[in-house]
Amino acid sequence: MIAGLGLLALSSCNDFLDKTPDTRVYLESVDQLQKLLVDGYMSQDYACVELATDNMVDNTAPDKSGNRYNLTAYDITDNQLFAFEDVTLGSGEDTPYGIWNSCYSAIAVANAVLEKAAEFEETMSDENGPLSYNDSLKLMAVKGEAYLIRAYHHFILANVFCMPYGGPTKASSQQGLPYMTHTEKTVSPMYERGNLQEFYENIENDLKLGLKFVSDQFYSVPRYHFNVNAANAFAAKFYLWVRDYEKAKHYATLALGDNPAANMNNFWRRDDLYNRGEDDVRAYSGISNPSIFMTIATNTTWSRRIGDRYGCKDNAASGTISGPGPTWGNSGHNCFRNNIFIVGSQEYGVFFIGTWWELFEYTDKLAGIGYVHMLRNEFCIEKSLLVRAEAEIFLEEYDKALADLKMWVDNRDECINKANVITPLSAGTIERFYNRDPKTNFEINKPMHIDEVCPSDKYSVNEEMKPWLQCVQHFRRIETVHKGDRFFDLKRYGIEITHRIGATRSETLTVGDKRWAIQLPYEVWIAGLEKNERDISDLDPMPTPTEAAF
To answer: What's the CATH code of the domain at 65?
Structure first.
């Protein structure tokens, strides 16, 4: 009897030990690698950096009429971001920690896939046996997507947590970040930050490999992945950032194709939307939109965080969704009519429903719980047109730049609302509108210092370029409103901004201010990674309780 019990216990123990003791995914086939890359995209949104831009104002600060509202922020993190302070009070969604963790998690997926892909290449086989010709092609495509994922998420990290790229010489002395090219296999590893030039060189190396291998052949829904057009659009953006305008134009042209006007965003011409929430955002940023190259669904409560203490109003709104332009006169563009959403009260701010509305995924409808998502229209025809136009301006190809800028604005001018008279875009309209006094033009045209931020031996801003560059930055500001992209443009253009905070306080980010690099999350630097540098003047005592309260 005792012997029998002992044998039974031994058998049960062996059964237990034969099972995998955790829930890790073991990659054994090319198909598994491809499926894993679905998790290789940021799950958190970087839209929260919009709070550090001129697209947002503090409703507790007096407006031109002296009105102010005693409103509270959705999260105390928002107060720190708006005041250009180091964020120490939040680590969830819509915080620097959320961005950091989400990007490096996506990078970890890409690295796991690339390491296993190298094993399959070495043996030319997976768990199913020797790789077929089709499997070999799929493996190359998987590698291409993984390289692009790794490059892009490092690019986002650099634009959030580093100073703007300063060119090869300057960037060699600017702080970089750990560039992860392998999966972590040790506990509490220590990393070096390196410099920003090395970091951008690593991004470019991965980008080139991604462009070499990427393919549309194996996607069921290409717009959820780094497909060929999205890869070229990313390359165009990267080279615009490093001021290699020939390459920026080249890759933008590859993404746009021969007739981009035929597939531009048709949202403006639809008559079946008008403040219908989820329908609007799916129509504007979803995969059914013909202009989309790649869209990403993120977990975020961003739509709930703006419209109380912080909102898009006054000059912020006039510079984006409800202000003048070179073709549409002194009021908001026709295309936004009936597509503007008001939170609480119009005095708190207005928002474009196509980019701002949330999508809710219920996990339990009866309990009313689930996940909040927003769609990021990450790459599209309109953005790539503006990339190419900016490159053409620096190449002094003004006729071509005008054609692209005109294509962008003409698409919106074809909206179904025709309340305001539209003037065709021309060199003359651009020069007249963007040479206005900024004080009487809602500060739409602001001094740029791109040559100071990123000196170039080959390119520099001249007087003829200035109104054209103001036009392209204004159009991009409108195109990407509420999504955080404006923060990246402000950094690289060297546009100074001032935030009025509460009753008496104001903070200004000037060219070269170290606060353009958002501080690393507390959890990261407390673990040993070097913090972002700060100017002595940024280390002033905290505001008085009266200032902080408003």
So the answer is: 1.25.40.390
178/198 Cα distance (integer angstroms) = 10
* Domain presence at residue 137: yes
Interatomic CA distance for residues 201 and 506, integer angstroms: 37
Mean pLDDT, range 230-254, rounded to an integer: 98
Asked if residue 355 is part of any domain, the answer here is yes
- For 242, phi then psi, to 5°, come to -95, 5
- Which residues, other chains included, contact 66 with Cβ-Cβ below 8 Å and sequence gap of 6+? none
Do 329 and 413 touch, CB atoms closer than 8 A? no
Within a domain: 17: no
User: What pLDDT, in 10s, does the model give residues 102-125?
Assistant: 999 999 999 999 999 999 999 999
Q: Taking the CA atoms of the chain, what radius of gyration do you get in angstroms?
A: 25
Do residues 533 and 519 touch, judged by C-beta distance below 8 A?
A: no
Residue 57 placed within a domain: yes
- Tell me: the pLDDT tens digits for 18-49? 444 455 567 899 999 999 999 999 999 999 99
Give me the number of domains the chain comprises.
Answer: 1
Q: Measured between alpha carbons, how far is 412 from 403 in angstroms, rounded to an integer? A: 15
Domain of residue 473: give its range. 30-179+191-294+306-539
From the centroid of its chain, how far is CA 88? 22
- Record the pTM: 0.92
Write the single-letter amino acid at 420. Answer: N
Buried b (16+ CB within 10 A) or exposed e, 317-337: bbbbbbbbbbbbeeebbbbbb
How far is residue 64 CA from its own chain's centroid?
Answer: 32
Residue 17 confidence class, pLDDT cut points 50, 70, 90: very low
- Show Cβ contacts of residue 229 under 8 Å, excluding neighbours closer than 6 positions: 254, 255, 293, 294, 379
The pLDDT tens digits for 393-433 are: 999 999 999 999 999 999 999 888 777 778 999 999 999 99
